[in-house]
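Input record, target 12 of the design panel.
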């Protein structure tokens, strides 16, 4: 067989790269995605050979992490590159814990880089003479080695003789570079000098000599290197108060220590070198971001974690004895890697010790977070998956073809011929909270997928329309995603969530929204996006809604959850009138999947989430009110049953994330997956909590309540007010508590403002009783 030669081998030029890619295409080797890269060839010509493109690794931001260096106290950040979900979140939790505890300090004990050439002689006597020669001529060898670098300083040569073989370990300091390349060059020239000088002095020539006899244990874990040094030896330490351990890590010092020593004993029995939880994750993430030698992750991840109880805190120390890093050289000069170093203020000369300290600090944070998660049970709970009897063949974007559109968009396209269907990649759409939560569970397509549909009309003229395919996650996917979040906040919250899931509004969410859109279309509800069709394949877990794509340019108000100032009195009244038309027309009996909301059936879950809200997420002025609401959870069923008002189907997520106003002033309402049966007041109070201005008055609030009440002329005002009061309590307990507590992991900008508004609304109603 003739072995082909790839053209331009070794060259990094545009011509050579094009030749290689052509060769690969001819030979049916796919590179179209890899070759679509933005790297400047001039930047990488010394970092790669036979270049064909790049892959991308997403970077997340970690921080702030409080770093105490001498007398300076500084909030620091780092970029972390990973494809492992939850890693950046865990690093951030660890950074939060350390920062809340007063920060961490770190010290660099030494920086060394080694190269260990091997010399082979005929007999042991020659090897002994060679050993003596090295001892006697160290300073001459040092001078010869250092001629070939401006940064490498030869500090020592250690000698190991094994019969007729001599291993020399050249030990250098290398400034701000990791030094592996420079020490190789320096050592090679020193070897040539040694062989030449030894021959002149003794007339003995080695049988052979090589640049590395594996004595340096380059890119390998080595007990010798741990003890004597290779790379940077850095120690990071902090003390975590018991209160922070309980509130943020959801465990106790005693439990952390109880598990620590038996775990170390088992590690020793297994022959583990060092002891740590997952230092390698932090090292790899920072190495990827900052252009370090990825092959050095192995030895750099050797770590020694130490825990010790001291008075009312837990002292934690992490030692990284072999951190092979540089703030200059290698991949650190590439533009993005250089910027990642700038984030840490570690770019360039004089920064490698700071770099080592910060790596150790961020790794220490991850150790704290992950170990606490394991001990508290959070680690296992956050990784729970419901089993499947068989794998599911997920739906692919490529399956959205003209035939697919033609067969499923009959409501609009029944008299039209679909020509082409193209994904609208220029449109950036933000998925809703539930979709983002569910996406943590699997890789199925969920959320918004915009498409451009080109078609011919009855008169054979070509036209186009933008459509939006909304692929629904299963209710199980949503619950699993919520379970991951709950476990990261408090393992007990995850437990009570599992017990409550059948009573929550997320139950059947994938079925409810399709049912609602069918109803809205058939009933001619004008305040809804145009509904073009649906596609359901339960075996493949596909539940799709196909609707009009709402262009932001055609809306006067859209996605305004953080902008109450955009909402005029007229807009607010129009929305209240629009949703009230639906409330009055909809019959509960028309819906199969929409059930009554009965939060009292999920009391343990709501009591737990309210307890966390009161303990950790609220300010002092609201604590008493929220505590009172916590105790009223027990009486919600009785309160609901005493309200002499008719319940109906409600939107139950009725806020400006799901309401737009056209330029003509028409409200458009969408995203009905949380629909439930409840008092219509529930939608009104949620909407008002988002759109009322800051420092709104009681008069303004009651103006809108009266406007809503006047739409229903047959009810008593007293009963109507009871409906608002009950609905506000349910809204705060079941929804706003979730927003605020979830903010321990991911903050919703509107959350605090909306909670304060809802509490003020409840206070006005209480005054009026």
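The sequence produced for target 12 reads:
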């Amino acid at each position: 067989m003739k072995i082909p030669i790839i053209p331009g081998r070794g060259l990094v030029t545009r011509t050579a790269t094009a030749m290689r890619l052509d060769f690969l295409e001819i030979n049916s080797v796919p590179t179209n995605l890899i070759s679509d890269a933005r790297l400047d060839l001039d930047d990488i010509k010394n970092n790669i050979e036979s270049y064909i493109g790049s892959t991308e690794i997403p970077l997340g931001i970690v921080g702030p992490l409080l770093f105490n260096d001498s007398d300076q106290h500084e909030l620091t950040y780092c970029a972390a590159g990973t494809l492992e979900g939850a890693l950046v979140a865990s690093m951030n939790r660890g950074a939060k814990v350390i920062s809340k505890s007063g920060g961490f300090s770190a010290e660099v004990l030494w920086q060394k880089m080694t190269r260990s050439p091997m010399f082979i002689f005929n007999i042991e006597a020659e090897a002994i003479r060679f050993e003596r020669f090295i001892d006697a001529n160290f300073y001459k060898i040092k001078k010869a080695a250092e001629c070939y670098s401006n940064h490498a300083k030869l500090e020592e040569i250690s000698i190991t003789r094994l019969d007729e073989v001599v291993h020399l370990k050249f030990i250098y300091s290398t400034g701000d570079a990791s030094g592996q390349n420079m020490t190789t060059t320096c050592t090679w020239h020193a070897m040539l000098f040694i062989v030449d000088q030894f021959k002149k002095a003794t007339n003995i020539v080695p049988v052979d000599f090589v640049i590395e006899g594996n004595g340096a244990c380059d890119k390998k874990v080595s007990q010798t290197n741990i003890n004597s040094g290779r790379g940077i030896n850095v120690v990071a330490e902090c003390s975590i108060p018991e209160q922070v351990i309980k509130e943020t890590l959801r465990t106790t010092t005693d439990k952390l220590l109880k598990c620590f020593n038996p775990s170390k004993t088992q590690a020793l029995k297994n022959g583990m070198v060092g002891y740590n939880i997952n230092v390698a994750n932090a090292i790899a993430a920072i190495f990827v971001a900052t252009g370090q030698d990825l092959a050095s992750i192995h030895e750099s991840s050797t770590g020694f974690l130490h825990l010790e109880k001291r008075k009312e805190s837990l002292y934690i120390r992490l030692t990284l004895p072999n951190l092979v890093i540089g703030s200059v050289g290698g991949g650190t000069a590439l533009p993005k890697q250089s910027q990642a170093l700038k984030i840490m203020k570690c770019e360039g000369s004089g920064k490698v010790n700071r770099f080592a300290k910060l790596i150790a600090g961020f790794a220490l944070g991850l150790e704290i977070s992950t170990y606490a998660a394991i001990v508290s049970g959070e680690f296992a709970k956050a990784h729970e998956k419901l089993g499947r009897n068989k794998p599911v063949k997920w739906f692919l974007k490529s399956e959205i073809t003209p035939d697919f559109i033609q067969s499923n968009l009959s409501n609009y396209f029944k008299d039209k011929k679909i020509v082409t269907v193209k994904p609208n990649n220029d449109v950036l759409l933000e998925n809703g909270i539930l979709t983002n939560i569910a996406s943590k569970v699997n890789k199925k397509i969920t959320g918004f997928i915009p498409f451009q549909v080109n078609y011919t009309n009855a008169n054979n003229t070509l036209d186009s329309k933008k459509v939006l395919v909304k692929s629904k996650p299963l209710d199980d996917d949503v619950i699993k995603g919520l379970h991951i979040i709950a476990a990261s906040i408090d393992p007990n919250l995850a437990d009570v969530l599992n017990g409550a899931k059948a009573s929550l509004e997320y139950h059947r969410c994938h079925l409810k929204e399709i049912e609602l859109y069918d109803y809205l279309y058939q009933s001619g509800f004008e305040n809804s996006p145009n509904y073009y069709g649906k596609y359901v394949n339960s075996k493949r877990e596909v539940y799709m809604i196909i609707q009009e794509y709402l262009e932001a340019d055609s809306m006067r108000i859209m996605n305004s959850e953080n902008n109450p100032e955009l909402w005029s009195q007229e807009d607010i009244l129009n929305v209240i009138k629009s949703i009230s038309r639906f409330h009055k027309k909809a019959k509960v009996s028309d819906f199969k999947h929409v059930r009554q909301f009965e939060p009292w059936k999920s009391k343990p879950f709501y009591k737990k989430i309210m307890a966390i809200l009161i303990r950790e997420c609220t300010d002092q002025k609201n604590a008493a009110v929220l505590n009172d609401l916590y105790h009223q959870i027990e009486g919600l069923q009785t309160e609901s049953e005493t309200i002499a008002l008719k319940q109906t189907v409600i939107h139950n997520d009725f806020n400006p994330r799901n309401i737009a106003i056209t330029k003509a002033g028409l409200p458009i309402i969408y995203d009905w997956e949380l629909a439930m049966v409840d008092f219509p007041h529930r939608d009104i109070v949620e909407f008002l909590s988002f759109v009322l201005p800051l420092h709104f008055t009681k008069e303004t609030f009651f103006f809108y309540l009266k406007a809503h009440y006047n739409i229903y002329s047959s009810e008593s005002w007293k009963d109507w007010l009871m409906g608002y009061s009950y609905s506000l309590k349910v809204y705060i307990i079941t929804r706003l508590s979730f927003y605020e507590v979830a903010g321990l992991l991911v903050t919703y900008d509107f959350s605090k403002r909306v909670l304060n508004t809802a509490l003020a609304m409840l206070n006005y109603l209480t005054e009026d009783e």
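The domain at 557-769 is CATH 3.90.1200.10 (Aminoglycoside 3'-phosphotransferase; Chain: A, domain 2).
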